[in-house]
Amino acid sequence: MATVSRNDPCPCGSGKKFKHCCLPNQSVDQRTPLPNSIQEKVAQAYKLMSEKMWDEAICDFKDCLNDNPESSEILQAIAGCYDGAEDYLMAAEYYEKALLDPDLAQIPLIRYRLGVSRACAGRIEKARESFEQALELFQKAQEKDAVKKILEELSAIEAGVKKPQSFLAQVQLQRAFSDFEDEDYQQAAARLEKVAALDPENSAVFYNLGVAYTFLKREDAALSCFEKTVQLDPDYVTAYYNMGQICLIVKRDFSRALNCFDRAIAFKENYIGAHHQKGVAYEMLGDMDKALECWRKALDLDPGNKQALENIERVQNKPS
Q: Do residues 272 and 298 make contact, with C-beta atoms less than 8 angstroms apart?
């Protein structure tokens, strides 16, 4: 079969690797090989898809479709490419075409993907229809529960409790997590920037955008995102810690770092990392007594904390 390899992005557009997404759910019937005459062209199209060259992949898949117009595999691949290109209306159109295949009509994952595309495109009523069909077809309780939660989300949108774009924002946030897993921080940042524009009151979006900027060594932008995070959610403990880390390690603003670690500890008293790094900040400010106090606190919370133990021994054994 001329399809993606196990480690390539899944054709469904989920952002996950094929082996972690749809591969385990495919039946033997779904893996029916395409005609030999188009195997090579399809393989090239999948290669372009795996490289996120969406327009080129769509063009090649459509050429393949001319040779095999009823191929549900190719129709799904085109839908996945449109999803990757964030053209959700076109993605929905091609999932609808794929579902004309009677064998696919009873496969809940295809109904589910169609629901996602429709919801991301703002077609909430049609999305509900797809998810309700998927709910009837899914067998596992975990899968049914996930669809029920989505239906609740759609109900909240229809009732005006949530913004129409909230579903798209949540989908993009989940895909950003896949970008993090693949260490594609540039893509994660680009995706999260769009989500922040869609959902400017979502603290998790700004927090994860700050993390992406940190990996990209864009520390000023990261600090701004973490500050926005705690403005939206003052209890977001790790945002204070991450601000402290940037101030300590990059900015060398030790007083500000102390303030950030103190705020983290105020919300989470047993925050071992914050206690330890607070000690490092005190050491950099020349206050060894307070540094030792912080590291001892870290050891109280975590008796096996090697870093804290080494720092205490180093400072105590340091010549006067």
A: yes
Q: Hey, CA dihedral for 12, 13, 14, 16, is it positive or negative? A: positive
CA atoms within a 13 Å half-sphere pointing along the CA-CB vector of 184 = 16
Two tokens, residue 65 = 């479709």
- From first to last of its 320 residues, what are the pLDDT tens digits of the chain? 334 444 555 545 455 555 456 554 444 344 456 667 678 889 999 999 999 999 999 999 999 998 888 889 999 999 999 999 999 999 999 999 999 988 887 889 999 999 999 999 999 999 999 999 999 999 999 999 999 999 999 999 999 999 888 899 999 999 999 999 999 999 999 999 999 998 999 999 999 999 999 999 999 999 999 999 999 999 999 999 999 999 999 999 999 999 999 999 999 999 999 999 999 999 999 999 999 999 999 999 999 999 999 999 999 887 76
**DSSP states along 198-267:** H-TT-HHHHHHHHHHHHHTT-HHHHHHHHHHHHHH-TT-HHHHHHHHHIIIIII--HHHHHHHHHHHHHH
Torsion of CA 297, 303, 307, 309, to 10 degrees: 80
Q: Is the dihedral angle over the CA atoms 217, 213, 184, 235 positive or is it negative? A: positive
